[in-house]
Amino acid sequence: MEHITLLLAIVVVTALVFDFTNGFHDTANAMATTISTGAMKPKAAVAMSAVLNLVGAFLSVEVAKTISKGLVDETGIQPEVILAALVGAILWNLLTWLVGLPSSSSHALMGGLIGATVASIGVSGVNGGVVLTKVLIPAVAAPVVAGVAAMVATRLTYKVGANIDQKTGRKGYKAGQIASAGLVSLAHGTNDAQKTMGIITLALVAGGALAPGSNPPVWVIVSAGLAIALGTYLGGWRIIRTMGKGLTDLQPQQGFAAQTGAATVILASSHLGFSLSTTHVCSGAVMGAGLGRKGGVVRWSTATRMFVAWGLTLPAAGLVAALAELVARQGDWGVAVVAAFLVGSSAAIWFVSRRQVVDHTNVNETGDGAEAAGEPEPAGVVTTAIAAVTPPPAGTVPADPADDAALKTTIPAPAAASGAAPTATV
Fold it and tell me: Which of 41, 61, 191, 316 gets the most CB atoms within 10 Å of its CB?
């Protein structure tokens, strides 16, 4: 093993903590729709996802190379910079997990790394071309591509399965959904686990334990894979609830289409070395699948909060990381202060989360606010437009007796047998 100092050891452990938070933060990407449609039991779903995340971590190192050799100037930064970057990323992951928002762990890490690097050596230490082509452009394009693909796949799925027995079809799609969820988990391991491999490798290079340009050592690959698998197994139930129930109501056909589309986009990006946000891809696919079903809707208030979190991820994590770097550079006492701040803040967030526990026993229940009180979310513009052009299925009986009464008041009563003229009820 490479020669590792105490500071490098602290950085490596902190990186693995980030990897752990990445695992439970992003479990929803693979398993939220599978759990919400009842295709798998919650605990079985996260266990399968954890195993496949571990397997995926060994399939490629292209994304790790993007992080360790492309995003910032690896020869101009110190281990303190990596530590500060991880602090920003971990705290953003925990805050968004607390409020149940599926934000990007990948962008939190990259935002932290960029912010800490700028605070340490200036803007020149960041490779702007790599940030633009392999981070920002995929961040915008990936959810759109995944959403369109899932919407088209959903419509084709319903069209192809129109003549299939409903009960048989649901069983088949649930089986397909389990397979596609496994594919997403595998893809998540090939993409997200590598980001921690990349950051640890970058720290080892910065500390002089590895030569510049080195690939991740085997022990780095193994430890990163195990950390993300453990986090995945514990399950980020708050975010699973939001993605599975908060964005839209999915049927097995939609879940299958969403996960298949997401897995395709993630695997393709991993092959190309794009440090893609699996959260953006999977969220876009879920929304696309929601709009792909006739009469399906997306809860745009939840989606809007999610979009705001996406926009804040890079600058928020970067700001915290920059401040942490300014303290950490002061020497051993600075590193100790930053580490203590991370531990204290993480503990505080965990204690707050205990006030309202979300776990595998209640993950499929409705969330807070209006939905918890039994009040549906007000229909937005898109939802209203879709409802206006979507006729109800033939033979549908109004669910609300009041609707039935209102219908009767607008239809003339049938003529009596004696031939009397019909009279309209007012």
Answer: 191
* HEC sequence for the chain: CCCCCHHHHHHHHHHHHHHHHHHHHHHHHHHHHHHHCCCCCHHHHHHHHHHHHHHHCCCCCHHHHHHHHCCECCCCCCHHHHHHHHHHHHHHHHHHHHCCCCCCHHHHHHHHHHHHHHHHHCHHHECHHHHHHHHHHHHHHHHHHHHHHHHHHHHHHHHHCCCCCHHHHHHHHHHHHHHHHHHHHHHHHHHHHHHHHHHHHHHHHHCCCCCCCCCCCHHHHHHHHHHHHHHHHHCCHHHHHHHHHHCCCCCHHHHHHHHHHHHHHHHHHHHHCCCCCHHHHHHHHHHHHHHHCCCCCCCHHHHHHHHHHHHHHHHHHHHHHHHHHHHHCCCHHHHHHHHHHHHHHHHHHHHHHCCCCCCCCCCCCCCCCCCCCCCCCCCCHHHHHHHHHCCCCCCCCCCCHHHHHHHHCCCCCCCCCCCCCCCCCC
360 in any annotated domain: no
- Residue 404 inside a domain? The answer is no
- Count CB-CB contacts under 10 A for residue 292: 25
CA-to-CA distance for 19 and 86, rounded, in angstroms? Answer: 10
List per-residue pLDDT tens for the chain, 426 residues long.
455 688 888 999 999 999 999 888 877 777 877 887 778 888 888 888 889 888 888 876 666 666 656 677 777 678 898 899 999 999 999 999 988 888 888 889 889 989 999 999 888 888 888 788 877 887 888 888 888 888 888 888 888 777 777 677 777 777 887 887 888 788 777 777 777 888 888 888 888 888 877 778 889 889 988 998 898 888 778 888 877 777 777 777 787 888 888 878 877 776 766 666 778 888 888 888 888 887 767 788 888 888 898 889 999 999 999 999 999 988 889 999 999 999 999 999 999 988 888 887 877 775 443 343 333 444 444 444 434 444 444 444 444 444 444 444 444 544 444 444 444 444
User: What pTM, to 2 d.p., does this model score?
Assistant: 0.76
Asked whether residue 165 is assigned to any structural domain, the reply reads yes
Give the residue numbers spanning the domain of 163: 6-353
Residue 263, classified by CB atoms within 10 Å of its CB into exposed (0-12), middle (13-18) or buried (19+), is buried
Domain count, the chain: 1
8: Cβ contacts below 8 Å, ≥ 6 apart: 79, 203, 204, 207, 209
